[in-house]
């Protein structure tokens, strides 16, 4: 028999559902060449190592299950934009606009805020197929390309990878900041399910075929969306992964790419899909040396 998902302490206040405040730990601080390390982060303009966005996503199920119930793992989703860097030691909490649950389809706001009220992450969370577009899809629709793209100049929108076999092992699915029996033992669906933070990883394994990572260029997660179509996603089961480049754009400090990845059963059933924005920092690329000269 499965245990109930332990959402921990949940606070309801003024039409919202919150986790308590907690301290964020940068578990990837020693990852050389990545924006999580102090050395690399300072080279590209941050005060120090930036905590990976999925650290917050690991905590999302606490408020999502409190708000939507376990059906969220079957036909739910979230869309998160990482708008401010999270630093080691920041004190934060997750907030969710309390769903009305008047029907099967609903979308509400989800966010991560610091103790001082600053929002580090803004987004939407959903159950079913609400009429409103998710935050990430709105952003893709507002991406009109860029006249001056250098890092991503050779990439073509509409490129689709071959489908590759993937499987999420229990050892790969462990989430140290949000452990739960459902991820390692029996769930309401029988087998252990994947933490939602790990689903974009397995669904996006094929995205390497898009060639979006360039040697020497520092990239970081800008936005992440997950939509369960026929969930949940189980551990130690065979799936197929395919990815498609859907948009390219540019801002003052980065070029960015959007790719959609799909997780499919061997019989062709679509289980889940993800939408990911990667920011490729101009300051880290020699192609932008004329605008971002190396500091001496």
Per CATH, the class reads: Alpha Beta
Gross morphology is globular
Q: Alpha-carbon distance between the termini? A: 62 Å
Number of helices: 8
Arithmetic mean pLDDT? 88
Helix content: 10-25%
Keywords:
296 residues, alpha+beta, Thiol Ester Dehydrase, Chain A, twelve-stranded antiparallel β-sheet, 8 helices, 12 strands, 15% helix, globular
Give an account of the 3D structure.
With 296 residues, the protein is an alpha+beta fold. It has a single domain, classed as Thiol Ester Dehydrase, Chain A. The protein contains 8 helices and 12 strands. Strands 1, 2, 3, 4, 5, 6, 7, 8, 9, 10, 11 and 12 form a 12-stranded antiparallel sheet that branches. Strand 6 and strand 7 form a beta hairpin. The longest helix has 9 residues, at 60-68. The radius of gyration is 19 Å and the shape is globular. The model has no long low-confidence stretch (mean pLDDT 88).
